[in-house]
Design brief:
- By secondary structure, the chain is mostly helical.
- The protein has one domain.
- The protein is built from 2 helices and no strands.
- The longest helix is centred in the middle third of the chain and has 133 residues.
- The model has no long low-confidence stretch (mean pLDDT 87).
Amino acid sequence: MSEQLLTQILSEMQNMNRDVTSIKEEQFKTNERLEQMEDRFNLIDTRLDKMDEKFVKIDERFYLIDQKFDKIDERFDLIDQKFVKIDERFYLIENQLVQINDRLTQLEYKTDTIQEQTAHLSEYHVETTSRLNSIASNDNVGYLKEMVFKHDQEIYRLKTYLFQTDSDFDNHDR
């Protein structure tokens, strides 16, 4: 029985030896797989490091772009301010043009009135002169000369008034 027991123990030991060998082989395979996985993880780590570097560069570029956009925004703000000033100046110029047009309308009316009055006075002067020529007596000549002189004075005053109004308008525009 002892031999049998020894044989059985030996058999069991051989089985255990095979099992241990099998376990060692499995462990060796597992170790190889772990080393491959470790190599892959190292590659992944390397790639991630490179990606991190790229992201840092991208972040830097975005920061630069943000700074440029800030400068552009500042320039647009300045341009907007200039447009506001231009709009204000155009509004003032439009108001001045309206005032100038009103003034021109008034001057045209005054000029038309003066021209009508001058025409009437000229007609009257011509009539008076022709009557004087037809009635040329010594008594009437002095009176008629005085009337012609008064009419000439009145024409002179109207022309002076017209030129004075024109010069006032010119001075007003400056």
